[in-house]
Design a protein that fits this description.
The complex is a heterotrimer of chains A (about 270), B (about 290) and C (about 160). Chain A has helices spanning about 5-40, 40-45, 50-60, 65-85, 95-130, 135-140, 145-185, 190-200, 200-230, 235-265. By secondary structure, chain A is mostly helical. In chain B, strands 6-7-8-3-9-10 form a 6-stranded mixed beta sheet, with helices on both faces.
Chain lengths: ~270, ~290, ~160
């Protein structure tokens, strides 16, 4: 093999190695960042209006997309589920199908993905822009710690909003499933709700769904504030950071979902 | 009750935190700094006496803003001493550094106003963060600062509704919100129309004298600087190449000062970026 | 957007968020319908409980009268022992039969109690004497095939 080919391969390997070590060091940096945020959090709660402000921008302004998406997902679930269940004469189980799918999985995951796209990217862009226009540096020079004043409230605003949004997604989804199942398809309302109640347990189904959405909330909020804080202070840098937030958050949600599902629903029901 | 226990107490504001009343406001002694491996400052020595307005001038990227960052403690020098009112800034811990910064005011290039707050709230920000003054008093103080810069009527506007000159003046009002002992200006004249230039220059001088503070102005606007400052330092390639009072500078025969003041395109600061000889590069493909 | 408006909307948001969580816990899940009314325990042993799960309903004449509280294996007799929690307002005779049924072909598995004519009633901690295990489809099929094979073998060649 000529030395060109070898050096070409070596170059590629070096790039891969560099990317991996870069990612790992980024992960380490992000973890330290999380610790720093938690350390600086007391002010975010003492001056609760800071966090309330962020809950508004992250949570309330995401309501429309979350509720509408939840409704549509529930309706589609009901439609598709009915087609399959009908084949086995189990169409009365539609309620439990819709409810379990949403409460256990679709609610937390989809709400998380939508939240990352809408609120996460907005947070990253805002913080990145503040960095670019030297607002963060100005705050530092005024002896105000931006971690406590800007970053922590946004982080906790996201963490608090996520479980609420996931619950609302699931609730509206179940309602959408009901709308399609009972008035539209004609399944008995009593069977719909009765089977659902019998099959959905508060523990593990509902609480595990809430735990999942909390974990997603922490992940997405951390990624969003971190990417914004770490962005290169140029227009291009902010744009790259915003994209990274959406991509990394989505991957994190799906990966964490898998890990948590394995632990939570191992073996699926039963003894 | 020590000031450290409650940083927002009136005692904390008036405490001098070990500031030496006789020392010069700023003293840089043989300071060197490099970004990664690129040297930016090589052995800078300068003094800023109390109550004076001092300009640091030089071309773009010569390290002027870096000097401001060293004074403010955002960067640590590789060697040399940075003393502010007798305190060595790089050696301060986080709490002491923040205590020192409460006595600074800084005007960033283009203002760096908080875009999600109104003009009023921008100026009230340092007051609300660092004091426990009641809202009525804060309101009066904010309006006084705004009056000093001539923008009292703009209190309710948002930063996006301000022109460049107005934004700069609001940022100035914010910088002096807590009557600092040292005010730093990073390119305060950049991008302004001639009237605003004059206004900002006058404000820098008047506020410095009225408040009894010390001012450091980083700029490359020679004309405005010569009108208002007490002393100038010229920085080129990381070193101080010239210094003096405005009269000395105007009469100077130093080639760098002359090139800078006259705005000549070539001189001690070369026009051409280092490259191969012209003929060789143009005819490189002809054999 | 002034501060009081933001506070209002955040308050509404948090309220409906918690409302959704409560909705899921109560209406969707079975937080309240489970283990609220006082009850007593009965034990029943089965050869095979099939797909009987914890908290499966115990029904009489189709009406839910209790839940399966726990299931364990009797190590000596290799039988499954199910502990049933019966609502206090229902009493059952000593000769009640407990059987494991499936509602529909693919429905949930539950315990059906058929009361007998005995005058004495079961008390807390009593054992149900007569039980019928779950029907295991595979055994049914293999039994059917076995019978079929026995018929054709014994009856000689048929045409």
């Amino acid at each position: 093999m000529s030395s060109d080919v070898i050096s070409g391969i070596a170059h590629v390997l070096r790039r891969i190695g560099g990317a991996v070590t870069g990612s790992i060091s980024r992960l380490g940096f992000a973890s330290r960042f999380l610790v720093a945020i938690v350390w600086h959090s007391p002010q975010a709660f003492r001056r609760i209006h800071l966090t309330v402000h962020e809950i508004y921008f992250a949570g309330v302004l995401s309501l429309v997309i979350i509720l509408m998406s939840g409704l549509f997902v529930g309706m589609v679930l009901s439609l598709q589920g009915y087609e399959t269940l009908k084949r086995y004469g189990a169409d009365e189980q539609l309620g439990i199908l819709v409810a379990l799918s949403l409460v256990r999985e679709l609610g937390p995951v989809m709400a998380g993905l939508l939240f990352a796209s809408r609120a996460g990217s907005a947070i990253t862009a805002e913080i990145g822009l503040m960095k670019t226009t030297e607002q963060l540096a100005a705050m530092e020079m005024m002896a105000v710690d931006p971690l406590a004043r800007v970053i922590a409230p946004r982080f906790w605003g996201g963490v608090i909003s996520m479980p609420l949004l996931a619950a609302l997604f699931s609730a509206f989804g179940i309602f959408g499933g009901y709308l399609v199942g009972v008035p539209l398809i004609g399944i008995d309302a009593g069977a719909f709700w009765g089977q659902m109640q019998a099959g959905v347990d508060v523990w593990p189904d509902v609480t595990n769904g809430i735990i999942k959405s909390l974990v997603f909330g922490v992940a997405v909020s951390l990624i969003a504030v971190f990417e914004g804080y770490d962005a290169k202070p140029t227009a291009e840098g902010v744009s790259i950071a915003t994209t990274r937030t959406v991509v990394m958050s989505s991957l994190a949600i799906l990966a964490l979902d898998f890990v948590m599902t394995v632990f939570m629903f191992r073996g699926g029901g039963g003894l | 009750m020590s000031a450290a226990a409650n940083p927002r107490s009136p005692a904390a504001l008036t405490e001098t935190c070990h500031l030496d009343p006789d020392a010069a406001a700023i003293e840089l002694t043989d300071v060197s700094f490099a970004y990664d491996r690129r040297p930016v400052l090589r052995g800078i020595t300068m003094t800023v006496p109390r109550g004076k307005v001092v300009a640091i001038m030089g071309g773009s990227g010569c390290g002027k803003t870096t000097i401001l960052r060293l004074i403010g403690g955002q960067l640590r020098p590789q060697s040399g001493k940075v003393l502010v009112a007798g305190q060595s800034v790089p050696d301060l811990d986080a709490a002491a550094l923040y205590a020192l910064r409460r006595k600074f005011g800084m005007l960033f290039q283009f203002g760096a106003l908080f875009t999600d707050m109104s003009v009023f709230e921008n100026i009230a920000f340092p007051m609300r963060e660092h004091t426990e003054l009641p809202e009525e008093l804060i309101r009066d103080l904010v309006l006084m600062k705004l009056h000093a810069v001539g923008l009292r009527g703009a209190a309710k506007l948002m930063p996006s509704e301000l022109s460049g000159g107005m934004a700069r003046r609001v940022a100035l009002a914010r910088a002096i919100a807590l009557d600092p002992m040292l005010v730093m200006y990073d390119e305060p004249f950049a991008g302004l129309d001639p009237i605003s230039l004059g206004v900002v220059g006058q404000l820098i001088r008047q506020l410095n004298d009225a408040l009894g503070t010390t001012s450091v102005v980083v700029t490359h606007d020679v004309y405005e600087s010569l009108k208002i400052v007490d002393y100038l330092y010229f920085v080129s390639e990381g070193k101080i190449v010239a210094q003096g009072t405005p009269n000395v500078v105007r009469a100077s025969t130093d080639p760098f000062v002359r090139q800078f003041v006259e705005g000549e395109s070539d001189g001690p600061v070369p026009f051409h970026y280092p490259a191969q000889p012209y003929r060789r590069e143009i005819f490189a493909d002809v054999q | 957007m002034n501060r009081s408006a933001i506070d209002l909307w955040v308050g509404i948001f948090v309220a409906i968020g918690f409302g959704a969580i409560l909705f899921m816990a109560l209406k969707v899940g079975n937080l309240l319908t489970f283990d609220r009314s006082p009850g007593y325990r009965l034990e029943a042993s089965f050869d095979n409980i099939g797909g009987l799960k914890l908290r499966a309903p115990v029904k009489t004449a189709g009406v839910v009268v209790g839940r399966v509280e726990s299931v364990r294996l009797n190590a000596k007799t290799y039988e499954a022992v199910a502990t049933l929690r019966i609502d206090n307002q229902y009493e059952f005779t000593k000769d009640t039969i407990a059987s494991i049924n499936t509602s529909g072909l693919l429905g949930e598995v539950y315990v059906a109690l058929d009361a007998g004519g005995d005058t004495t009633m079961l008390k807390d901690g009593d054992r149900i004497a007569k039980t019928q295990s779950a029907v295991v489809i595979e055994k049914l099929i293999s039994q059917f095939l076995f019978d079929k094979a026995a018929d054709s073998g014994g009856g000689g060649a048929k045409k």
